Amino acid sequence: MSAASTFKGAVDQATDNRALEILARVGYPVNGVLHLLIAYIILGIALGVRGEADQTGALATLAAQRGGRIALWVVAFGLIALALWRLAETLLGLHPGECTDAHHRDTPMINRLKAFGLAAVYTAIAITAIQFAMGGSRKGSQEAAGLSARLMQSDGGRAVLVIIGLIVTAIGVYFAYKGASRNFLNDLNAPCGPAVTFLGVCGHVAEGSVLAAAGLSVIVATYRSDPARATGLDGAVKALGQTALGPAVLAAAAAGFAAYGLYCFVLARYARM
Asked: Where exactly are the transmembrane stretches of this chain (predicted)?
């Protein structure tokens, strides 16, 4: 037996451990809280209050609360646990906890890539939470604009930005489609009723739409050589707020992010692992 096969077998055995599965599920309500905070920030922007409408802004808001440092460590722990489960899915395929021989399955590469992408996102947010918990501070939009400005100085860097924009746009479109088609119900291990379906549809469509707008804004910013507009989720939200129906669009986006946040609490109990 090869070393790779032995390692995959060990990971498969780990996913059969009920305690580890419970630890991974902790990441879902943590993600839900972050989405509710982002919804709160977006609503504030709609009402004219300044804020950073992304995960960094949500973590900064959490850090400013009483007991925020402890809460940030909880966020980091939950997201790291969920990221490790996604890494297991990268190796074994989706839902390895549902069978005892997941390492022998043939899993489509696209599913492994999706799992790896989620693991990377959760890890990045967890690292930011740890930085805040240790007394640091970050401005996600400023860092994104600075990185974009450096990349725009060369043709290769501009190509990288366009590729990133296309990937984020594709993820957003897929997320919105997943909500509109109700395919997200396949991620649940039991029927959960119309209320959960409503939250899932609204949450996926709203977040997917904003992500798609964020990806397109990166592409447009690269074409116009305007790094200030290539600031990811926060930039997309504020660009939407500058349209004719800005406040109404932002209120709808806030409601959608809140719906997805509540849906994450459902995932904590009913997600297929």
From this structure: 28-49, 70-88, 115-135, 156-177, 248-268
